């Protein structure tokens, strides 16, 4: 279990500087077997090195997709040979708010990924994908190349008409299947009309696969994940993810197209009868959208100034593919302003989570004497962000409030004003005050971007943010790290016991109860009823809200691939501007001490302090 403490209060080089070796002995590594289910070698080109034989077919990974030779094409065949491959349910495939995340070795098990992909297609109405178009992208992490070939063949076997796949070529790397999470959403939304014209009289799919474990580390010993974005580019709703899990419990066959591996390193279209794969530039559609949202000439006039210094840390993750085209080529930043800008399969042995702990290299730069005026970082798949000024840190709760307060005047996309504002429940109340000041509708939702997406699709929401460094707007249906830039470990059992204890505690709590120097206004386990579709989500976080507006929140997070993460959020409003520069750990110490004593954290987890404090 990891333990994070988040304390907040409202306050107003293309290469790494030292390019890290990304495990240069990759080709000699040996991995466990992935058997792909049938005596007929449908996946004979996808096998894991030194894989041991299985009773069915052992397939090894040979990264044919990274070849620069022309891709194979099935010559003018009007029909695909589809094979039904027998399989059995595999435990542990319940899909969470951020898709399915596990260790890479789990996904390399026989049929593990294939089962989940087929269960997804079994969960969608046929009209949502038959003869339609789906997008496939990811953050460039280890196993993405092999997974892309598996997904493509199962998609074709289920009747998908076309797959759009991103590809990056740079001086330092060729990365197949690369698209940031925000870019996947942008591609889905932009190409919706175009897709409809391509398939006249056919209801076309608008959705996409994202191969990412977000801010979790990558590499053979670390994490991998898969997500599905639905029709308007938003994360699949619980009605779909619940069906996926149900189908993983009863799956008996996988539909696979008998086609060769597709060359994903070359732009263009590969046709396999009625099915095709188009390899596209991962930046173009996303950049076009950003240019519609922001005044690029105005931003360029700031970034290109000789007296303004800017540093962006891509953390060797997917935004490295976007940093140079956007910040350097379009906005005039110096190439030296891009830190850790080459995407690597293992993120340079780093943890691509943009916070004060894991982005220490950037933090040290920004807190140095005479450091840059503006600094930012993004995570593994490009949807989280961290913002810093010269020798100060802007909390996620504050950054979304600042953006919302200035959006109408500063961002052309919001020239008629935002429709509404929203935050996740653990996020501080700074945004609430902005909504009140601007007389805008305001929504408090559970953690998970799908809840924001429903409000956006209903025309109720424009700008939103969550506590875990996620900020975004209705230009897409995901949080967006670059958009925001422009505008503890123990056993799960202890964490669960602590949350159960707190739930029992709040069931007996009443208004007026005294906790140290604070008087309780209410305590609950946050439940959300979606105002758009009426769905109810319970047990989203234990809240202690005090009469002075201070809050302590305890929440179990499912974003890791093992164990559990307990997140503790502590908030207090400070109206005295002269105290806004006080370190949060000092200003919030009475509430921090109260949170630790009330939760009996050390007793349950054995931890005296968090792993990450932001």
Task: Describe what you observe in this structure.
This protein has 614 residues and is of the alpha/beta class. It is 28% helix and 22% strand. The chain contains 18 helices and 30 strands. The strands form seven sheets. Strands 5, 6, 7, 8, 9, 10, 12 and 13 form an eight-stranded mixed sheet that branches. Strands 23-24-27-28-29-1-30 form a seven-stranded mixed sheet, with helices on one face. Strands 15-14-16-17-18 form a five-stranded mixed sheet. α11 (396-410) runs parallel beside α12 (430-438). The longest helix has 17 residues, at 492-508. The radius of gyration is 24 Å and the shape is globular. The relative contact order is 0.14. It is an enzyme of class 5 (isomerase). Residues 93-252, 285-388, 397-488 form the Alpha-D-phosphohexomutase alpha/beta/alpha domain.
Report a brief summary of the structure.
With 614 residues, the chain is of the alpha/beta class. It is built from 18 helices and 30 strands.
Q: What does the radius of gyration come to?
A: 24 Å
Total number of helical segments?
18
Structural class: alpha/beta
User: Average pLDDT across residues?
Assistant: 80
Q: Major beta sheet, specifics?
A: 8 strands, mixed
Count the E strands: 30
Poorly predicted runs of 5 or more residues: 5-77, 193-205
What is the terminal-to-terminal distance? 18 Å
Q: Give the DSSP E fraction (strand runs of 2 or more residues).
A: 15-25%
The outline comes out as globular
Proportion of helical residues: 25-40%
Subcellular location: Plastid, Chloroplast
Keywords: Carbohydrate metabolism, Chloroplast, Glucose metabolism, Isomerase, Magnesium, Metal-binding, Phosphoprotein, Plastid, Transit peptide
GO biological process, one term: glucose metabolic process
Main location: plastid
